[in-house]
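tool_call: predict_structure(chain=1)
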Amino acid sequence: RNRDLNMTKAKFEMISQAALKACASPIGLKQGFIDDPQHCDFEPEQLLCKEAETADCLTAGQVELMKQLYRGPINPRTQEVIFPGVAKGNERLLGDFVDGKAFPVALDLFKYAAFQDPDWDWTTLDWDKTVNEAVSKLGPLLHVGSDLAPFFDRGAKLLLYVGWNDFHNGQELID
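tool_result:
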């Protein structure tokens, strides 16, 4: 592991507090959340260490890691974002996602649903080939039509809630 990327819970908490201070409304600041993460202009570069690393700054590697987490994974061939990253204000919950281990839900999705191979090795994942192959296999099962007219024509009502910190970035529903 690259020591320059070592992120502790305390570091994530420090980043979260900086993002809150930069972007939360007075009520959000008091309650501990950013009201509108899409319009948060906090950038991890603002916390870059001027000299040696301390508890209240980030190394260049940690800044780059946070930029990648906010952006989301990128297809190495097309440079397109595969899916949006985490919302700003969500940093204190990221420890389980940057520990160098596969996230169990995602791992099972690839192993059992996409490739039907319990021995599939996540370290072989190619963000271009593997993801596209999984999407082609699972897409028809996971995607539904967006035309809700028949639903509403029957007089039905729809209540949909996704929180910014639910690790299904709300921006995915907007774009």
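agent: The chain has a mean pLDDT of 86. Proceeding to next step.
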